Amino acid sequence: MPSHSSPFHKAEHAVPPPPDPQSEARELQVKALLKTVLEPILNTDIVSLGMVRNLRIVEDYIYLRLYVGKHQQALKAEILTLLSSLEWCKKSYVELCTIAGVRTTIAVSSGKGGVGKSTTAVNLAAALQAQGNKVGLLDADVYGPNVPQMLGLAQSAVQIVDTPTGQRFVPLEAHGIKVMSVGLLAAPDHPLAWRGPVLHKIITQFIQEVAWGDLDYLLIDLPPGTGDAQITIVQESPICGVILVTTPQQVAVADVRRSIHMFRQVGIPVLGIVENMSYLLCGHCGTPNPIFGSGGGQQLADELQAPLLGQVPIDAKICAGGDIGTPLTLSDPDSAVGQVFTTIAIALNTTFATPNPLTPLAASALVA
Ligand SMILES: Nc1ncnc2c1ncn2[C@@H]1O[C@H](COP(=O)(O)OP(=O)(O)OP(=O)(O)O)[C@@H](O)[C@H]1O
Questions:
Q1: Does residue 367 lie within any of the structural domains?
Q2: Nearest atom within ligand 1 for CA of residue 277
Q3: How far apart are the first and last CA of the chain?
Q4: Each residue's pLDDT tens digit, 142-183
Q5: Residue 91's domain is classified under what CATH number?
Q6: Is residue 368 part of a domain?
Q7: What mean pLDDT comes out for the span 286-300?
Q8: Binding site listing for ATP
């Protein structure tokens, strides 16, 4: 954090001065330098990974925020050493932004509601957990928080604990997955009509004030669309990347296109697209029938250079699983649905858990 004697303390509240050529040149110099710092697992520079945000240069001082997982905190020292090599820099401040205990944070988003975003988040969490990962699921869909019901936790009460760093929500647990949801704080059947600053505060609390313990993956189920709530969440959290869910119809695809642009604008890598309700499997012969049309997900993936991570069939057992609180990927991992989510979980593990010379998933995520 910047000390009170730093120029940033004054600058926080002041109207930003017009950019001067010297500051602009220095900013370019700093960015170029930061681009030489590689995240060792993804083997990609920290600027392209969206880890560096809020870069500001005031006179001879540099300030930036570094959004990282618990295993990446050593990057701070590397950055400070590197910036100290600039002959004009008197001091640099790197504010570490992380979620305590969490290694990899991934958001699940969709351009519009009802396309299966929560279904994807829940089944992916189950697939990652089944592969031996410690997994948390944060239901940040303030407009329709239905993760608790999908995991059989609908009526549960949330506990609060005192910790050395303040009070924290205690996540609930379902099928070995730690779960926190805005829905758990609202009375049943009560609309969640939070707006503006209240919404911002609740979301920020959810990101920072949950006692997750040690997690390999934290999945965040975002609200649909590209509004204030989504932007707050992606800007306030150390998200490594976002998975976008769509259906094959043209209208859903257009919404996802908008979402992808929004994420790329704020510098969050897009890990790929999940096409849900891609086809209906014939109950007799097993032939796939693309009742909502076909090719939408692949077309979008090609156009936006984001990989198509999987195509999930329509299966009535998904709804049944949602109602009884057990994701289909857990109750029937060998089903076509279970296999799609297992494949995606393996791709994520390969990308985020093993040092590698730029996996296809990581490489394509960074195309702007
Ligand atoms: N592949 C599928 N086959 C059958 N039913 C599905 C499938 N995917 C989702 N559903 C069902 O569609 C409904 C909407 O799914 P879900 O709640 O996951 O969508 P969502 O995008 O999260 O919606 P919202 O944005 O409104 O929260 C649920 O009843 C779910 O069980």
A1: no
A2: 1
A3: 30
A4: 777 889 889 998 777 888 898 888 888 899 999 999 999 877
A5: 3.30.300.130
A6: no
A7: 76
A8: 111-118
Q: Which protein residue has the closest C-alpha to ligand 1 atom 27? A: 144
Same domain? For 89 and 232 the reply is no
287 Cα: distance to centroid of ligand 1 (angstroms): 23
Give the domain range for residue 131: 102-351
Tell me the one-letter amino acid at 171: P
Q: Which residues are annotated as a binding site?
A: 111-118
Say which residues have a Cβ less than 8 Å from residue 353's Cβ, sequence separation at least 6.
41, 216
Task: List the CATH number of the domain containing 307.
Answer: 3.40.50.300
Cα distance between residue 239 and residue 266, in whole Å:
11
Residues with CB under 6 A from ligand 1: 110, 113-119, 141, 144, 146, 224, 276-277, 312, 314-315, 318-319, 322
- Asked if 213 and 319 sit in the same domain, the reply is yes
**Is residue 150 one of the residues assigned to a domain?**
yes
Residue 261: pLDDT band (50, 70, 90) is confident
Instruction: Give the C-alpha distances (Å, rounded to integers) separating 318 from 179, 207, 224.
Output: 19, 28, 20
